[in-house]
Amino acid sequence: MDEKVLIVKYGEVAMRKNNQYIFISRLVSSIRRNLDGLGEFYVVKEQGRLIIESRGGEMDFDKIIPRVIKIFGILGVCPGVKTKDQGIENLKRLALEHVKEYYAGRKMTFKVQARRANKDYPLISNEICAIVGEHILENMPDMTVDVRNPEAVVSVELRNDAYVFSKFIEGYGGLPYGSSGRAVSLLSGGIDSPVATWMMAKRGLYVDCVYFNSPPYTSERAKQKVVDLASIIAEYTGGIRLHIVPFTELQLYLLENVPEDKLTIFLKRAMMRCGQAIAEKSGAMALITGDSVGQVASQTMQAIFAVNSATTMPVLRPLAGMDKQEIIDIAEKIGTFETSIQPFEDCCTIFVAKHPETKPSANVIKRIEAKLEKLDEMLEQALAETEVIDL
Is the peptide bond before 216 cis (omega within 30 degrees of 0)? Predict the structure, then answer.
């Protein structure tokens, strides 16, 4: 019996050796979660890959592939066909049907690639390639063989069952979500922080997001914009928790009590402290920001140092060495860019000094902050009133 299957290939996971099974189990869980509601599926573990099989009915690749391809840890997927009959005549038939389905009417080059897990098979790989390739040539007059640079590689793999496939749809790679621990990301409505959040989730971090809300200076649409950005990231992670911290009173307090040119530094330090409190409560071990060194006044090395000293946690800055266009390119690739450029300002853009200091002294900042008698109380109040949304 023949059936359509989706072959899932993973890259970095394969190098995990003794604890590889932990990463593969997370991949399997992520696949099952992302396919929930589309039908019933098996996820079969084969050496070096996973095979997704339908428990009943025809597999709809158009619905399934977009759900699977976004899962971190997956190098790519191959739509193909599986058969228990490994006889050469059946392999010839399957390969030809596969080629007709995907390439009929196209003038193009191809080659056949064969692999045998069963070394007792009566034909060696080169013989399988020659026999299957000749059959395709005889029946597909528009196709020619090119073994060096073919437009299509028709793969025939003999494992416990036989598989025929040719298309490779590239994934995002990385590590399975949640396999590297937990962090809290400071998420704004801009371009950078959603990209930073996505990048660290791709490295296997389970990520909670924190947004600082400042009504009435920021609108409900600004808040919804951040919810939408977190929802886009959740398409890759299978879900995400968003903490919305009310920040208006604290910002007004800082506006009245710190030098204007240093206001942004104090705001960011307060955000770091809130982020750390949420991280400690959730068991996270690091914070994530979208800083890119030198991009704006608050991202000079002196400013980063002054902000960093507000927390005792590691601060991950995956965009630190990128320029703006590189960040935009990733934002467009992952689908956050169009939402990020919607014209709804958040607290980071509303409360900005006209002439911010670019080389603040951390010691000076700390001395001023020590005199802010209500700061700790206001931070605690903001955290107590934080809204939590599970997306």
Answer: yes
Asked if residues 315 and 289 have their Cβ atoms less than 8 Å apart, the reply is yes
Q: Identify any residues that bridge with 268 across adjacent strands, giving them in sequence order.
A: none
In the three-class reduction of DSSP (H, G, I as helix; E, B as strand; rest coil), residue 138 is classed as helix
Q: Cite the DSSP H helix spans in the chain.
A: 20-34, 61-68, 88-103, 125-139, 192-202, 220-237, 248-257, 263-282, 301-308, 324-334, 337-340, 347-350, 362-370, 375-384
Q: Are strands 162-165 and 143-145 parallel, antiparallel or unpaired?
A: unpaired
CA distance 234 to 231: 5
The answer to whether the pTM exceeds 0.70 is yes
Among residues 236, 42, 237, 80, the alpha carbon closest in space to that of 169 is found at 80
The Cα 343–Cα 195 span in angstroms is 18
Task: Name 246's bridge partners.
Answer: 213
Those residues whose C-beta lies under 8 Å from the C-beta of residue 378, and which sit 6 or more positions away, are 249, 250, 253
Buried b (16+ CB within 10 A) or exposed e, 97-128: ebbeeebeeeeeebbbbbebeeeebeeeeeeb
pLDDT for 274-307, tens place per residue?
Answer: 999 999 999 999 999 999 998 887 789 999 999 9
